[in-house]
Give the backbone structure.
Amino acid sequence: MYDLIYTPRPTALLRGAAERGCRTWDGLEMLVQQGAAALRLWSGRDTVPVAAMRQAALERLQAS
């Protein structure tokens, strides 16, 4: 199950799905992966710092 919302983490939808045994992801991972794909295209690099991008996004969300 995927919920495109970043906050709250987890959303009620994802919490309920996880309680029923579903694998879940929130919108943060989609944001990070879209950013990583764009950076690969723009930079021409095969590898980009996905973990650092995820961590920066998490820190920003926690600060707001």
